[in-house]
Amino acid sequence: MKKFYLLWIIVLVTVMSGCSTVANEPRVKKDYFTLWNSCEALTALENFVDDVTNPNSKNYIPKEDRIATFDMDGTFVGELYPSYFEYNMLEYRALDDATYKDIAPADVKEAAQEIRDFVRNGTALPPHFDMKHAHAAAKAYAGMTLAEFDAYVKSYAAKPANGFVGMTYGQSFYKPMLQVFDYLNANGFTCYVVSGSDRFICRALTSAIGINPNYVIGMDVKLRSSAQGTEDGVNYTMGKDEYLIRTDELIIKNLKTNKVLQITQEIGKVPVLSFGNSGGDSAMHNYTLGNKTYRSAAFMLIADDEERDHANRQKALTLGEQWREAGYHVISMRDDFKTIYGNDVQKVDFTFP
């Protein structure tokens, strides 16, 4: 009888041990951050992830609720100072593209010229230029199919990035930030791109690093079926041989609180991690930090590296203090990144035709 009870205890302990192994997630110990220096922001991120992925922690977050949101330009894609990728592309489209420049509407050309004057002469962009650009960009690519627009973006992205040697626009990823994506994915997080740039531009650029299009949120224009004409979609049935085209009608510029609205509508959950680089991301960060269910954290990059990138260090340091006061962790590109775009990429002076 004693042998029977001893055997039963051994079996029970073995079963319980097996259950514990199943319930507990594997702890990720691989060093994902080979391109980072030791820094406060990285320590904060690793401590956060270790805590919320530990089933024994009071701050444990189930995988389905591990939502991380990333701004794109200036957060993991180079802003290519002083102008965004989509600003550069509109400038090219309206002023240099031989297939379009002669038929570009006046307001599209005006917005493109203001970008050119800003980049080349340092002329200040007019107030609320983000919206002016958004409406101009909607017009500039209207009539393109989604496949045509994707090809156009990728063709422009293949051009050498002005101000750098050894890099195209489409290669201008902050390599240390790509390691953050890898690290979070390995720890069961779902990462979304939430950008002020056109959604389909973001999809074209981020496909190069394996981000699926359904995890990309951005500025949107209305789409229309190729044979729909002016008929409202609720009254029109698309045919099997039709395709979608872009219109000139802007739906939303995905900045500030609009980012929060889009996250709520498209994801349906409050993020627990948020990454950005500007005031346009503060609302998204605050929404994340206001998570009532789970522990959360927000990170801001500052472009303070004048040696390896085109940056304004003093402005960046001022912003860094502002972000810290707001409760965000600050990532210094100069101090925290061992490299930005890769050691074979060099910053050079701007050149223009």
Textual characterization of the structure:
- Strand 7, helix 11 and strand 8 form a beta-alpha-beta unit.
- The N and C termini lie far apart (93 Å).
- The longest helix is centred in the first third of the chain and has 22 residues.
- The radius of gyration is 24 Å and the shape is globular.
- With 353 residues, the chain is an alpha/beta fold.
Concise summary:
The protein is of the alpha/beta class.
Give the tags:
353 residues; alpha/beta; two-stranded antiparallel sheet; 9 strands; 14% strand
Write the layout of secondary structure elements.
Elements: H1 2-23, H2 40-52, E1 67-70, H3 85-95, H4 106-121, H5 129-140, H6 146-157, E2 164-165, H7 175-186, E3 190-198, H8 199-206, E4 216-225, E5 244-252, H9 257-266, E6 273-276, H10 282-289, E7 297-302, H11 313-325, E8 329-332, H12 333-336, E9 346-347
Parallel strand pairs: 1-3, 1-6, 3-4, 6-7, 7-8
Antiparallel strand pairs: 2-9, 4-5
